[in-house]
């Protein structure tokens, strides 16, 4: 499975941000319904009562007393009162919930024709036309007496809170995600046969515990691999000495045995040496070899030429392909094992091909052997697995395809065993082209 760097971080951040926005939205609705609207209604009710008092005073006071009353209103409360003179300009005032509530209250008190106006030259002031038995009066008052715009201030406050919460959440998610991303990357590299550096044991306690356990597991795996390599190398070294002596003894038999018998004994000894070579190749780790720029077509041609020098009938079909970052020695072993498998089990001419594909480069080795059933493909990629009856009946350790599969995995490549058109098998490795 391909891991996408940072995906956990963005998912975590998205979940937390959605939860924060939802909680703040619910808080806003509750505040409006349970606090803001009742408080607004109470304030507007008090001011409407004040207007009723002003209307009653203008109705009952004498002209001189009315003028003094109007002056005191302007001085103490900032409320302007002036008689209506003709058709003075004004238009209904637009506003929010507070102004709508105020308009409904004054219409219920002074009549349905009462309206709230804005007039030119008086910004920030609302005007109400109050009718009395003597005359109609304009009553002007600051807009914030009935329409304070608390909603906008509340929205700004909530927005600032959400931004702060998102920043804090992003920091927490980043601190949690960073060690997990490193751990995921190291696990992916370890699964590909690489040797990643130790994961930093940072972050929350649980994440540090996981990182520490992963580092311990990696060290144990490296120790097991070293022991396996040492074990197989020791056995291979110990076997080569008696095999060399046997080979020398067989060569010196001369006329004491028939030529065919001697030839068969030499072939058996060569098979034993080939099996030992496979053990050593299988035990060797590719992770110690650095990547370098490689022309896969050139490397495949060199591998085919080496096989041809040993008498193998081999043909190359090589196209120009992009340069890849590969481990050259490991790819040489891969090509050699594929060619050896095709020669050993396929028969006839072997074809080594390199061609470009969709964002990948395809290396193929084809033969005209019996082929492999689709249900057996994955099993035959496992170590020490053979199916002699399905191929040519040749002996071997069953490590050739396992070595190829492991090297391909270490390069992030795909290894397939496909039927060849016209009969036979195509062993194909698809290397991704790096961006």
Task: Outline the structure in words.
It contains 10 helices and 12 strands. With 435 residues, it is α+β, with helices and mostly antiparallel strands. Among the domains are: 145 residues, Sensor histidine kinase RisS, periplasmic domain (Beta-Lactamase, 2-Layer Sandwich); 144 residues, Heat Shock Protein 90 (2-Layer Sandwich), CATH 3.30.565.10. A 5-stranded antiparallel sheet has the order 1-5-4-3-2. β11 and β12 form a beta hairpin. The longest helix has 54 residues.
Characteristics of this structure?
alpha+beta; Beta-Lactamase; Heat Shock Protein 90; 435 residues; five-stranded mixed beta sheet; 10 helices; rod-shaped; disordered N terminus
Roughly how many Å is the radius of gyration? 45 Å
List low-pLDDT spans: 1-5, 389-393
Taking all residues together, what is the mean pLDDT?
Answer: 78
Give the overall shape: rod-shaped
How would you spell out the order of helices and strands?
Answer: HHEEHEEEHHHEHEEHEEHHEE
The CATH class label of the domain at 7-151 is: Alpha Beta
Tell me the name of the CATH homologous superfamily of the domain at 7-151: Sensor histidine kinase RisS, periplasmic domain
CATH architecture type of the domain at 7-151: 2-Layer Sandwich
Distance between the termini: 19 Å
DSSP summary: helix tally: 10
Please tally the β strands and state the result.
12
Q: What structural category do the secondary elements indicate? A: alpha+beta
* Amount of beta strand: 5-15%
Q: Strand order, main sheet: write it out.
A: 1-5-4-3-2
Helix content: 55-70%
Q: What is the CATH topology classification name of the domain at 7-151?
A: Beta-Lactamase
Largest sheet: 5 strands, antiparallel
């Amino acid at each position: 499975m391909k891991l996408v760097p940072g995906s956990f971080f963005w998912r975590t951040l998205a979940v937390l941000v959605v939860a924060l926005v939802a909680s703040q939205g619910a808080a806003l609705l509750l505040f409006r319904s349970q606090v803001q609207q009742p408080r607004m209604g109470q304030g507007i009710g008090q001011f409407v009562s004040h207007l009723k008092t002003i209307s009653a005073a203008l109705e009952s006071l004498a002209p001189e007393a009315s003028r003094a009353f109007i002056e005191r209103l302007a001085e103490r409360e900032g409320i302007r009162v002036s008689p209506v003179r003709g058709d003075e300009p004004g238009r209904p005032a637009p506003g929010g919930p507070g102004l709508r509530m105020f308009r409904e209250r004054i219409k219920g008190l002074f009549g349905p024709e009462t309206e709230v106006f804005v007039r030119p030259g008086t910004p920030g002031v609302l005007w109400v036309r109050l009718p009395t038995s003597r005359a109609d009066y304009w009553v002007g008052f600051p807009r914030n007496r009935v329409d304070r715009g608390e909603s906008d201030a509340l929205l700004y406050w909530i927005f600032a809170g959400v931004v702060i919460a998102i920043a804090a959440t992003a920091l927490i998610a980043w601190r949690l995600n960073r060690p997990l991303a490193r751990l995921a990357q190291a696990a992916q590299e370890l699964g590909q046969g690489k040797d990643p550096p130790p994961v930093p044991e940072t972050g929350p306690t649980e994440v540090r515990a996981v990182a520490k356990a992963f580092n311990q597991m990696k060290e144990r795996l490296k120790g097991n691999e070293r022991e396996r390599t040492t074990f197989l190398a020791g056995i291979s070294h110990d076997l080569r000495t008696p095999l060399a002596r046997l080979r020398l003894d067989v060569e010196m038999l001369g006329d004491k045995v028939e030529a065919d018998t001697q030839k068969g004994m030499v072939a058996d000894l060569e098979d034993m040496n080939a099996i030992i070579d496979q053990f050593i190749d299988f035990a060797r780790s590719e992770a110690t070899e650095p990547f370098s720029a490689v022309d896969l077509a050139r490397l495949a041609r060199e591998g085919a030429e080496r096989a041809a020098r040993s008498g193998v009938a081999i043909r190359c079909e090589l196209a120009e392909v992009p340069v890849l970052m590969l481990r050259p020695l490991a790819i040489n072993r891969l090509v050699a094992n594929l060619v050896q498998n095709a020669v050993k089990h396929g028969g006839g001419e072997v074809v080594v091909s390199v061609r470009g594909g969709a964002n990948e480069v395809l290396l193929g080795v084809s033969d005209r052997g019996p082929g492999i059933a689709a249900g057996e493909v994955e099993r035959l990629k496992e170590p020490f697995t053979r199916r002699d009856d399905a191929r040519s009946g040749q002996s071997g350790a069953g490590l050739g395809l396992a070595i190829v599969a492991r090297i391909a995995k270490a390069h992030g490549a795909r290894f397939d065993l496909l039927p060849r058109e016209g009969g036979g098998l195509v062993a194909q490795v698809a290397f991704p082209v790096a961006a």
